[in-house]
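Each lists chain and fold; for instance:
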Amino acid sequence: MHKLVVLYSKPADPDHFRDYYVTNHLPLVMNWPGLLAWRYSFDVAATTGEAPYFAVFEGDFADAAAMAAARASPQGQRVAADVANYATGGAVIIHYPVQDGTG
C-alpha cells in the first residue's frame, strides 16, 4: 500500500475551511481513481505543546504508480486546484510506501 498524507496549517478562517472541505473538497476526493480508502480529521493534537497542523488527510493507494496516476488524472487535477479555495494556511503533502509491522 502507498499512503498520501496532507497536513494543513491553521487557515485564516477555520469555520470556512471545515465547511468548504466537507461540502466541496471531499466530494472531489471521492472521485479519485485508484483511491482505496481515505480519512481526515480536524482534531489534530500534539503529544506536548500546540499542534503544528490544523487538519490532516490520509489517502490509501495500491502503490506509488496508482497514486501518481490518480494525481495526474483530471479528477486529481481538480482536487489539487481546489486546495487554494480553503487552505489559506498552506498544506504539506507527503507520501510513502507503508511497511507492515510485526509483533
Q: What stands out?
A: The radius of gyration is 14 Å.
